[in-house]
Each structure stands twice: as C-alpha cells, then as structure tokens.
C-alpha cells in the first residue's frame, strides 16, 4: 500500500504465539478496568471498527475489542487482532469519524503486520549493535544510545507514520470522513503539554501527523468519493433522524 521495502522473517503463527503472553499480561493488568462487552462504549468501538475491518478485507481474523476505563489518551493493538482502547481518547476522538481515525490506525498496524516487522528488525539491529560495540565500543557504553536514537526509534516512527497513511485510506474506504483525521490530531495536539522532542519518541509529534495527513488527504478524498460515501451517509442520516413508532 505504501511501496516500502522491508525485512520480515517472522511467520503469522510465531507472531501470534509471542503475542499471547502480552495479551494475558494486558488482560491481567487492566482486569478491574475493562468495560463489559455490552457497555455502550464497547459497542460503539465495535460498530465503528466493523466497517473498517470490512474495508480492510480482514473479517476472517478473530478480532477482539476491549475498552479500558482510564484517562489515558491511547489505544494499541496486539498481533491477532486484539485491540485495546482507553476511554480517555474518546473525548479527543469526539465522534465516529474521529474514532475511525484511531481505529483505522490500529487496524492498519495489524494489516501491515508491523509487530512482526519490528521483531524481525530488532534481530538485525541487535546484530549491528553488537558489531558496532566490538569494533568501536568494547565497553558497550554507547551501543544503546546509538541503537535507540539511530535505529529503533526512527524505525518505530516510520511504522507509526505508515499506519497513519494506511489507516486514512481504510477509514475513507469505509465511508468515514477522512477530513476529521486532521481535526482529531489537532485536538490531541492541543492536549499535549510541554516541549516534545520527536527524535526521542516512538511516535511522530501530533503536529507532524497533521501535516502528513493533509499531504495525503487528496488521495483519501478520492477514495471517499469513489465509494459514493456522500450518498450513503446522506441516507444513513435520513434513517437516523426518522421518527420512531410508538405503540
């Protein structure tokens, strides 16, 4: 979808096997904060996600969506389609299109198998880090800094940026308004306090994400228009506004 070359040596089975432990840890850590499956927030997340999953052609995966009652403004996905959304991000998302921005990003990670790619890349990075230490830094004092700032963090930001781009296409194809993505990330940026040094983070700065999304927007709007979303959404609005029958 993005034309990027990459190295991958982790199979789907290996990826899912390694994710089971992480999944169990997350479920144990937040066991007292998990909202029930029939909670309005959980149903809301599942409803929006269902359209994006269909657009991605990934209905065959055993998806799970968990909503965690926490002020943390975050969401993440584990291999195998295990998505976790914190309630703190829902006011930032503000509406279905904003939530589709968040979920499109997470589903894009699964579609692109970024977790497996990170595992594969880590093997290469560790080998190169070892070679660097043997040749230039026998004490290993600089190795970690070089690996983090020079390899691991830039690679993580690259995957996050790619997930933003793929997620934007997925939400547009699913007839969510892609223009809301820039508004959502602007709202997120407005909640962030203090100076954020992008090169020290695993994720791009919110303002940089807005810039990227604006650059990709013409292509996303083309996808949205080709899906005849304006007509589809107009009919949906008509049905939603129709008066209910009372007996």
UniProtKB/TrEMBL annotation:
Which cofactors must be present for this protein to function? Zn(2+)
Q: Which residues form the Peptidase M48 domain?
A: 43-216
Record keywords? Hydrolase, Metal-binding, Metalloprotease, Protease, Zinc
Cofactor note (record): Binds 1 zinc ion per subunit.
Query: Which InterPro entries does the UniProt entry name for this protein?
Result: Mito/Outer_Membr_Metalloprot, Peptidase_M48
Q: Which family does it belong to?
A: Belongs to the peptidase M48 family.
Q: Can you say what this protein is called?
A: Peptidase M48 domain-containing protein
Q: Which organism is it from?
A: Linnemannia exigua
């Amino acid at each position: 979808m993005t034309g990027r070359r990459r190295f991958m040596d982790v199979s789907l089975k290996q990826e899912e096997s390694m994710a089971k432990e992480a999944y169990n840890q997350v479920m144990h850590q937040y066991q007292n904060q998990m909202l029930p499956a029939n909670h309005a927030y959980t149903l809301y997340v599942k409803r929006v996600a269902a359209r994006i999953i269909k657009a991605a052609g990934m209905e065959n995966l055993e998806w799970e969506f968990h909503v965690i009652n926490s002020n943390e403004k975050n969401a993440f996905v584990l291999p195998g389609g295990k998505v976790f959304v914190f309630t703190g991000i829902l006011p930032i998302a503000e509406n279905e299109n904003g939530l589709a921005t968040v979920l499109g990003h997470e589903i894009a990670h699964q579609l692109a198998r970024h977790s497996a790619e990170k595992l594969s890349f880590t093997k290469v990075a560790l080998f190169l880090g070892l070679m660097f230490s043997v040749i230039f830094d026998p004490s290993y004092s600089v190795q970690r800094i070089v690996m983090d700032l020079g390899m691991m963090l830039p690679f993580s930001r690259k995957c996050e940026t790619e997930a933003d781009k793929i997620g934007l296409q997925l939400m547009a194809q699913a007839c969510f308004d892609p223009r809301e993505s820039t508004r959502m990330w602007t709202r997120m940026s407005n909640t962030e306090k203090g100076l954020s040094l992008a090169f020290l983070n695993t994720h791009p700065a919110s303002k940089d994400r807005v810039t990227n999304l604006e650059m990709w927007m013409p292509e996303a709007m083309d996808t949205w228009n080709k899906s005849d979303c304006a007509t589809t959404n107009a009919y949906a609005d008509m049905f939603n506004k129709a008066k209910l029958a009372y007996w």
